[in-house]
Design goal:
By secondary structure, the protein is of the alpha+beta class. It folds into 2 domains: 283 residues, 2-methylcitrate dehydratase PrpD (Orthogonal Bundle); 132 residues, 60s Ribosomal Protein L30, Chain: A (2-Layer Sandwich), CATH 3.30.1330.120. Helix content is 51%, strand content 8%. The chain is built from 19 helices and 9 strands. The strands form 3 sheets. Strands 5, 6, 7, 8 and 9 form a 5-stranded mixed β-sheet that branches. The termini are far apart.
Length: 449
Amino acid sequence: MKGIERLIEFVLEVRWNDLPAEVRDLAEMIKTDDFGSLYAGVNVKSSRIAADYAKEAWGNGDCTIFATGDKSRPEGAAFANGVAINALDVDDCGLYTKGHPGCQIFPTLLALGEDLGISGRGFCESLAVGYELAARVARPWHDYYGTYRAGGSWGSVAAAGVAARLMDLTPGETLEAFRIAEYNSPYIPIDRGVSDPSMVKHGAGYGPVAGITAARLAKKGFTGTETILSLDRYGNWLDDVGSDFVIQGGVVWKEYASCAWTHPALDAVKTLVEDTGMSSEEIESVHVRGHGPAIQLGTEVPTTTEEAQFNLAWPVAAFLVDGEVGPEQVEGDALQNGTIIDMAQKIEIEEDPEFTAQYERAVRGEPGGKHAAEVDIKTASGEVFSSGPVEGNIKYPPDGWDLERIENKFRRVVSHAQPKGRVEELLDWTTNLSEIDNLRGYSEELELG
């Protein structure tokens, strides 16, 4: 059996009891973090625009748009919720994806799950399958294409697989869904989104729409061209699917509301502050050495939340001033905070070639790979404190994450968008989702919008 055939069999046939206990536990953690990222992002301007458009373009359906509580067809809800979950860049990262699997898999599954009335257990089961599929698709994707294409690109194929599973496509139809989705996948050159940050970001929302569309077309007999997943050179990356799980140690959760490339520097700053007890008022200058992609983010003072997220100096400055980088530091009035602005202007950045080489190995899943940075802070008294090389929390397998920590993160990020009592209500609902018999109409009790 070829790798692509094994992949399709995995997508269509794996059930909850087929998953290792560790993967079932992982699905619960993923579910909680994804819902937290979604609830946290619903009030961001990009989320509201996407929600209004989704209702306008795909209205007259039964699927929930979380930013407004409106209903639409699955394509509309998946698009709007995909934008919302990534709006603050607090959603998870995945090995081989070089991006965010959550904003591709989760909104696809959420919309179709509600439309088709699957169970909460079926939701968690398909979430684990979808995340594994995302890793298996993204690895050859980034190897094959010369341009670094963001999640909404490879996410189209991963979303097509999730849709095929929920819509009961045959193996042949699923193959065509992969082919159609890949051929029609959005281009999404992430480097342009980094150099000129805007609401397009990772193309969140576009992968789910392309994937659902591909599955619908395949079910009706539409055909596509051959997929790179069928190439012999990628067979050994697919052959062990179902027996070995990339996501077991291949999903990492984000502590900060900023691009993952900033996290090593933030962890280095956190180490320095904790070790020295210094206050922001003592700091005269900050020097950050990081890998090339992180340095590419730059130091310009941001004017939008997207610019704040795709910036190196801003989150470092925000952490030094506020002791955290959450939604409150990258959105709204924070962008006019004179103390953070002044601190950001004290920060210089420099690429370290060894850190860059380590980063490139890390995203390929090779030995010796890591996301690292080093920070020097000079105080007004002339003292210089150095963190030394610090490997950030973006690493596989991740350190120190369990369900309790993710639930605490949920509370922290969602409190930016919801009253305190409401946060606990939403967390309780999320925790109990696995026990729901039918997701159709499940959101009515949430009173969204």
